[in-house]
Amino acid sequence: MPRIVMKFGGTSVADLDRIRHVAARVKRQVDAGDQVAVVVSAMAGATNQLVAWCQALSPLHDAREYDAVLATGEQVTTGLLAIALQAIGVEARSWAGWQIPLRTDDSHGAARILAIEAADLVSRMQSGQVAVVAGFQGLAPDNRIATLGRGGSDTSAVALAAAIAADRCDIYTDVDGVYTTDPRMVPRARRLEKIAYEEMLELASVGAKVLQTRSVELAMKSRVRVRVLSSFGDPDNNSQGTLLVDEDEIVEKEIVTGIAYSRDEAKVTLRHVPDRPGIATAVFGPLSAAHVNVDMIVQNISAEGTTDMTFTIGRADLPRVIDCLERERDKIGFSTLLTDRDVAKISVVGVGMRSHAGIANTMFRTLAEKSINIQVISTSEIKVSVLIAQDYTELAVRALHTAYGLDAA
Ligand code: ASP
Ligand code: MG
């Protein structure tokens, strides 16, 4: 008997009509003879509201209470979906994270899953009961509810699929798959039938917001077959959506598979840093201690034994970074601290890059033809990223989409 995990995001359970629609979808899967676990998010907007309430009472609130509040969003949708399923004759029950239990570490607000003790849940699934599981939450060692970080119900779904050895994890969302780039920006973007885990990982981490990055990491590590598809699509069409697969399963490798952009970056430049051993750690040590994620880094030689150092960070971290660097100013010894929020990072991703030369240069030439200045460059084996002025984001993404032959016919 095939065992399937179906995950529904916030827009798919946004109101009672949509919950009924989800219930009907789940029923089809049950009628097809599958054992089904459903993982749900909170109703669209619900989690944001809960965050806002915590913030309003106290910006520096207790993370354990924040988790207690945030986890309620998913508790509502599990109960409602179980009721909707029962109402159409499908046996179902809701499961909160602690009831399974899904065990996490104690990093409240951004907890990691340690183990899922699913024996009880599995035996009920085997007896024909649909398990409706609250995404985004688990039980921490301190015996308190923990949440997994925003977007975390994707990770709940993949982790559950791995724990119960599911044949597939279907992630239902408001887009009908993974596209060559954001279809709202580029109407000629194409849906990908398959994408390699590694490509998806790079795309997710550079701003394609279809799946939480950690869920992709987990799928890759535990070899869970993940399919991303629309909850509003034709349920009879089995070739819909995008399947995450091993690289070897992709026969015709495109050189570039997808293009992502992120406008959540900020650029920091330290002018006239002394050019001597130990300087990089003097700059980045304190930032890492402050849990700041540094992304792209360049160091230029300038005049008289000094160097300019430029790097990018998440824009939300900018105030913390400025504060941190100003406090270290004497130790580091820079002359000026410059910041720029009006930047965007554009990335081209594809496993085909491993075997093809000239990919990066196509990117540089295309941007040059549009007179777009490249501020910082970084590369990995299957990715090239550049930092540009934010105003040119759309122009750059469109031009690159055409240059790499990704436009739909
Ligand atoms: N409801 C949570 C959020 O909005 C988790 C999720 O939807 O994945 O972040
Ligand atoms: Mg999501």
Helix and strand arrangement:
Blueprint: E1 3-8, H1 16-31, E2 35-40, H2 46-57, H3 63-70, H4 72-87, E3 92-95, E4 102-104, E5 113-116, H5 119-126, E6 130-134, E7 137-139, E8 145-147, H6 153-163, E9 168-173, E10 194-196, H7 197-205, H8 213-222, E11 226-230, E12 242-245, E13 258-262, E14 265-274, H9 279-289, E15 294-301, E16 306-314, H10 318-327, H11 329-332, E17 336-340, E18 343-349, H12 359-369, E19 376-380, E20 383-389, H13 393-403
Parallel strand pairs: 1-2, 1-9, 2-6, 3-6, 9-11, 10-12
Antiparallel strand pairs: 4-5, 7-8, 11-12, 13-18, 14-16, 14-17, 15-16, 18-20, 19-20
Helix pairs in contact: 1-4, 6-8, 7-8, 12-13
Bound molecules: aspartic acid and magnesium ion (MG).
Magnesium ion binds next to loops.
Quick tags:
single chain; 409 residues; alpha/beta; Carbamate kinase; VC0802-like; 2 domains; 8-stranded mixed sheet; 4-stranded antiparallel sheet; 20 strands; 33% helix; 26% strand; globular; binds aspartic acid; binds magnesium ion
CATH architectural arrangement of the largest domain: 3-Layer(aba) Sandwich
Overall geometric form? globular
Count of helix runs? 13
Portion of residues in beta strands equals 25-35%
CATH uppermost class of the largest domain: Alpha Beta
Task: Supply Rg.
Answer: 23 Å
Strand arrangement in the largest pleated sheet: 3-6-2-1-9-11-12-10
What is the multimeric organization of the chains shown? single chain
Termini separation (Å)?
41 Å
